[in-house]
Amino acid sequence: MTLESILIFLLIGAIAGWLAGLIVKGFGFGLIGNIVIGIIGAFIAGYIFPALNVSLGTGIVAAIIHATIGAVILLLVVRVIKRA
């Protein structure tokens, strides 16, 4: 991985985590937390979407949408576990 790809990876994670925090109210994690949530969300969506034969396309916008959906799933699961 080059430095440029690592920075893009972190930027997509930060945007996806921030968007997921806005969608799922009550979650604010700061910059580092948003990056972590976004990256974990990207891995979750990367596992779920191919199993369902769903493709959002290629490019940075598709990657952000992909990671955001995964991050929202992650935050909803965390919310359900916290209530239990």
N- to C-terminal distance: 40 Å
Oligomerization state: single chain
Mass-distribution shape:
globular
- Rounded mean pLDDT is 86
Could you tell me the strand content as a percent range? under 5%
- Note the total helix count: 3
Please give the radius of gyration in angstroms.
13 Å
The class by helix and strand makeup works out as: mainly alpha
Would you list the SSEs in sequence order as H and E? HHH
The portion of residues assigned to helices is over 70%
Count of β-strands:
0
Uncertain regions spanning at least 5 consecutive residues? none
Describe the structure.
There is one protein chain. The protein has 84 residues and is mainly α. It has one domain. Helices cover 80% and strands 0% of the residues. Helix 1 packs across helix 2, helix 1 crosses helix 3 and helix 2 crosses helix 3. The longest helix has 24 residues.
Draw up the topology in text.
Blueprint: H1 3-23, H2 30-51, H3 60-83
Helix pairs in contact: 1-2, 1-3, 2-3
List keywords for this structure.
84 residues; mainly alpha; 0% strand
Brief digest:
With 84 residues, the protein is an all-alpha fold.
